[in-house]
């Protein structure tokens, strides 16, 4: 018994020191990335119609990301989730791609987020450090989880929910409790380092939170259902865009896929508003401040621009666009439900994150860190309902789902645990070119949009 306590004590000290080092390293990288991004965006804002070059920049990013060093492609959150679950390392070139290419995407007007580069680079740096220390595969995975938690906490200034997001996003229904302590240490350390280095964060304490009542509680349930539907819409439009632009790239060339996607984004920026392009922070602030929206369909514009950006070759995160979509959808719903606009925008921001990423716990705590403790009961309700509404859908195809997670799994998967809980249509499969490609693209979309439709024979 004494030996067990001594071992536990040694492990706590060991992982405290390792997590502190990871948090400090990732915090410095987070600050560097955010400073470079802010300076680049400030310079870009002085250029009229800056988004006109989007088609060319998307093509450049796609070439560098997909065609250069083809094996080093672990620069997206979904790829990092897959690497962590498979206990595989991340290459140094992937880290460089994850740091630089998202900046080009966002500065040129591509709709992407800033969290993936920080979280993914954090996982990559932690992976390199673990290999340098010659750790076993299990400890390497723990280090990578700490890197993701530190990256997410540092980029948004949410040390607790950022750490939990790194744990919760990997496997729905299963939290790696053995990594919770170092993940929290890494997240808190990264937040303190980035704050010390002068990074500014979203923080909107709500000045008006309605008194709890049965009527308002019912409105929150309805709002949670609405945000769940918005989450599904985001996921499905993203899948549809991937199928369409993959078809275009294989039927013609990658160049035309990037050109068509870029021209659509330019058209939305010119005829709707450039606020739906790029990082989109002004659109988030507008909704959280209770200001009138430019359009009631602003959240839909952002879903479309984000989906096309990634499908046409852009690289970056998806959480910041999720914040935009949730905040704008909440502000739009507030007019119909006669609820304070800023309050419902804040709830939408975290609820759509909970629904799309399957992270209701992290999203609920994030609401407290961003908007104050008074919003906690309402945020928890809408996040859980949004999470349940999405069923087994996820914005991250590599995310695993346990059978006891509470998600709506229609049948037990028959395949190996490496693909456990994923849709059959999300599995890698060979796509035949030319004549059969369009048919397979349509069939894949049917499986996404109409699960197990009657009369649909998958063997044809």
* Number of structural domains: 2
Helix-strand string: HHHHHHHEHHHHHHHHHEH
**Count of β-strands:** 2
The dominant shape is globular
The description of the largest β-sheet is: 2 strands, parallel
Oligomer: single chain
Using only C-alpha atoms, the radius of gyration works out to 21 Å
**Uncertain regions spanning at least 5 consecutive residues:** 410-435, 453-460
Overall pLDDT score: 82
CATH topology (fold) name of the largest domain: Clc chloride channel
**Helix fraction by DSSP (H/I, runs of at least 4):** 55-70%
Number of helices: 17
CATH-wise, what's the superfamily of the largest domain? Clc chloride channel
Looking at the overall shape, the CATH architecture of the largest domain is Orthogonal Bundle
CATH class of the largest domain: Mainly Alpha
Features:
mainly alpha; two-stranded parallel ribbon; disordered C terminus; 460 residues; Clc chloride channel; 17 helices
What would you say about this model in short?
The protein has helices at 2-44, 54-67, 77-85, 92-107, 115-132, 137-156, 159-168, 180-196, 214-251, 254-271, 281-288, 298-311, 319-337, 341-357, 360-371, 376-389, 437-449; strands at 171-172, 400-401.
Structure, explained:
This protein has 460 residues and is mainly alpha-helical. It has two domains: 2-196, Clc chloride channel; 214-389, Clc chloride channel (Orthogonal Bundle). Helices cover 65% and strands 1% of the residues. The protein has 17 helices and two strands. Strands 1-2 form a two-stranded parallel sheet. It is globular, with a radius of gyration of 21 Å. 50% of the residues are buried.
